[in-house]
Write a structure and sequence with these properties.
The protein starts with a helix and ends with a strand. The protein is mainly beta and about 140 residues long. Helices cover about 10% and strands about 60% of the residues. The protein has two helices and nine strands. Strands 1-2-3-4-5-6-7-8 form an eight-stranded antiparallel beta barrel.
């Protein structure tokens, strides 16, 4: 039931619900198709009608990235957000296929030095609803 509810939240425009907050504690990086690196990183991902804000806890404090949503698409049953960061760099955020469990968010960008596409998978563990309740994603 809750899994279906989360998928409905994703497929209905964000401005209908206002703000959705997700927490990610594990990041998987795909520098190329042959290997991936896992890191424990404390992140909060906030989806608003026009923006996505990613707050990452670092040793130096908080790293805040604000992405302006330029458009949305549904490709191969996956919701895709086309975004731009403050440096005008294109970022793509892709959600799992509709029939898959919502356990991750994929983040794509081009390496400034090599122009290689880099994929980061933010493993999502919980979601905060508008009422302040936290819902464990993996236990639904």
């Amino acid at each position: 039931m809750m899994k279906t509810l989360c998928l409905i939240f994703l497929l209905i425009p964000f401005n209908f619900f206002g703000q959705e907050v997700y927490y990610s504690f594990l990041t998987e990086t795909y520098p190329n198709i042959y290997r991936s690196d896992f890191k424990r990183v404390d992140r909060r991902i906030v989806f608003e009608p026009n923006d996505v804000t990613i707050v990452t806890e670092t040793n130096q404090g908080k790293d805040i990235e604000v992405l302006n949503i330029q458009g949305t698409q549904v490709l191969e049953d996956r919701l895709t957000l086309i975004c731009e960061n403050r440096s005008k760099r294109k970022i793509t955020i892709v959600f799992p296929k509709e029939q898959e469990e919502f356990l991750y968010i994929d983040y794509y960008y081009r390496s400034p030095s090599t122009n290689e596409e880099i994929q980061i998978r933010l493993h999502v563990e919980e979601m905060q609803t508008g009422q302040g309740d936290q819902i464990k994603i993996g236990n639904i």
